[in-house]
């Protein structure tokens, strides 16, 4: 019961714990005291357990910084849809690492993967990569001067050399076990992600001593593959296993997956405010069948997709979030009122964010060198 | 019988014809008159039917030259052993195309493949690529000023982009049908070969209007794959299907495969003359059980690996070769004498060739930019 009453928890917390244990991922909470000892305040996602697991965060990031190393954080976005609140979860982590820990940020636009796996033409992938992903990241506060954005299709020879090297250090059986498929497009995409993760360590890209990769737990196969390949390339090229952190996934507004392909249940950061409000007002909550029943039994914030938005994005203040949680649980706060409150915060955020987007788009185009074909 | 009496034929000619028909390869002899019409003398390999098949040689090469296009010829060498008379067969073709047809020559050193498939370390692959392959090509007469030598591991972004694009246009089933295997190393190597063949057409590498690839018939799967990928990339990147020619394979001195891995039966262009002579004197011939029998029945040059050396390399004069053929057939020329004659020619060639090698090695090192790791 204690677990279910955790205001930072969700109904799926047990599944995440199971996943974590099955794959040997360490609980993130174990490194929070060390982060504080090193003089860093944990982020909202860390405090709230959204960041629930890690591999080697202490060794690569904390030890790396302590011993004067140069540490990078890297993520990739497939330019295949619009930037939504699921993407913002990753963006907020990058911004935290950039501002608070001073890590160098690398952002891969996975246009090679978009073409190979989803047949998205180059021009379209470049446009989406720049105008949706890079622009929204900048508008959210990622400092473009301290970030390296790049296209997978235009990253230079040493990066591609890693793909070639990696291809010789993994078997078909391993690929198939991880991805269930041996389509050449998937094999090459998987090896390209390995190169994404590892290349900041190469001299040509800055020679970083360690790389942190924040992902959803569904991306862990890529990290495990990369770690194995690092070991197998020992003696060929000197690399350190990447660190990784694992976050819980924010749900769509029907409780299912939040995804560009489900636009009715996904709030995009470029949604016109009225569109976003309409989606939110129809969202699945943890409310009861009737108002009377809800006043009597209280709501279930863990089951509520509006509460997800508070938890992940809209209520940065922990005490305020705890108050909302208690008021829902006690039956004092009903869903209609709660949704209006959420919509107000959401629209305030969207309007402020969108006012920065045009300039961010211009900046974004100035930063990248798209591939020639 | 007529076929077996052809001084340019070998015992396997029927197999080559069958292979040609099965895979839809056209007979090369059909383009020889067109080559002459265009003002070019056919090469020794063309005249003698060693070059027995082609795809699109007329369309890509002859039409290309006629309409003022820029045509390239490309081949790749895996830096995994020593340069032998099998490699010389390809080298001679490159030199002919360079001198007689004025084609631009590209030579890929397949160091990525060597690492991925045979685990040959980089330094070793670079050394072998430069000192064995590039140096021998130059010493044989390939003009280094009109040739582009490159490493697969250091060819720049547009080349790698072709690998990425190709990966999205081929299925696992097709790869497996062609190569019998889906090891990631093989998949990436196969797609890298596709990029080798196609990249001279890209603006960044000269924008050649057509590319010719001279291969042994065992390499045809790579050409078929490349042709299919060209078709499937239509609308993404404008490419023309490569032309290809197919040569018969010279046999090793025991009648088996000529290969670096069978050094006793393979003459290397860097063999000390006395080593080469010893190998030659032990070679399998088409001789009879006794000298008496051979004087009576004649020898079988088609079964003779020494005759192979004459046919492919050591006797450029057709009339002289026909005389040797007749004298063997008639029983006038016995194997002992014939081998001594072959050894004399071989040693003369090797000594002249090896006297150019040191300077060619220096030139070779000055031409290439090896990868950084």
Plain-language structure description:
- The structure is a homodimer of 373-residue chains.
- The first copy, chain A, is an alpha/beta fold and 373 residues long.
- The first copy, chain A, folds into 2 domains: 13-251, Rossmann fold; 263-354, Tyrosyl-Transfer RNA Synthetase, CATH 1.10.240.
- Helices cover 51% and strands 10% of the residues of chain A.
- Chain A contains 17 helices and 7 strands.
- Chain A has helices at residues 13-22, 32-37, 44-47, 57-66, 85-101, 111-118, 122-140, 157-167, 172-179, 184-198, 220-232, 273-281, 291-297, 305-314, 318-330, 335-355, 357-367, and strands spanning 26-27, 51-55, 71-77, 104-109, 147-151, 210-216, 243-247.
- A 7-stranded mixed sheet of chain A has the order 1-2-7-6-3-4-5, with helices on both faces.
- In chain A, strand 6, helix 11 (220-232) and strand 7 form a beta-alpha-beta unit.
- In chain A, helix 6 packs antiparallel against helix 10 and helix 14 (305-314) runs parallel beside helix 16.
- The longest helix of chain A is centred in the last third of the chain and has 21 residues, at 335-355.
- Chain A is globular, with a radius of gyration of 21 Å.
- The A-B interface holds A 112, 115-117, 119, 121-122, 152-158, 160-161, 163-168, 170-172, 175, 181-185, 187-189, 191-192, 202-204, 236-237, 371-373 and B 112, 115-117, 119, 121-122, 152-158, 160-161, 163-168, 170-172, 175, 181-185, 187-189, 191-192, 202-204, 236-237, 371-373.
